[in-house]
Design goal:
The chain is mainly alpha-helical. It is 77% helix and 0% strand. The protein contains 3 helices and no strands. Helix 1 packs antiparallel against helix 2, helix 1 crosses helix 3 and helix 2 crosses helix 3. The longest helix is centred in the N-terminal third of the chain and has 27 residues. The radius of gyration is 15 Å and the shape is elongated. The chain starts with a helix and ends in a 6-residue tail after the last helix. 10% of the residues are buried.
């Protein structure tokens, strides 16, 4: 397969899955701006790992797995960032 075809196929799959990934993130995060930041991170990571995606498997499940790990990282970072006000 031509690399351009692979990127076009990947882009089409991402465009189809993106609203569901966004809704999944929004259901957990509840902050629009943080949801958008996470969605961008998921998109970048998915694009970087596109060679690892197996086209015979559902794309949404693969992308949701990436989103899940990003949510876990986001929660961990939020828990570590404790503001103490006097």
């Amino acid at each position: 397969m031509d690399p351009t075809d692979h990127e076009t196929d990947f882009t089409a799959r991402w465009v189809a899955a993106q609203p569901m990934i966004s809704a999944y993130l929004a259901s957990v995060v509840r902050d629009y701006h943080e949801t958008e930041d996470l969605l961008q991170k998921v998109a970048v990571i998915a694009f970087q790992k596109k060679q690892e995606y197996d086209p015979s498997r559902p794309f949404y499940a693969w992308a949701a797995g990436i989103a899940r790990f990003e949510l876990l990282r986001w929660r961990r970072d939020k828990a570590r960032n404790k503001h103490v006000f006097t």
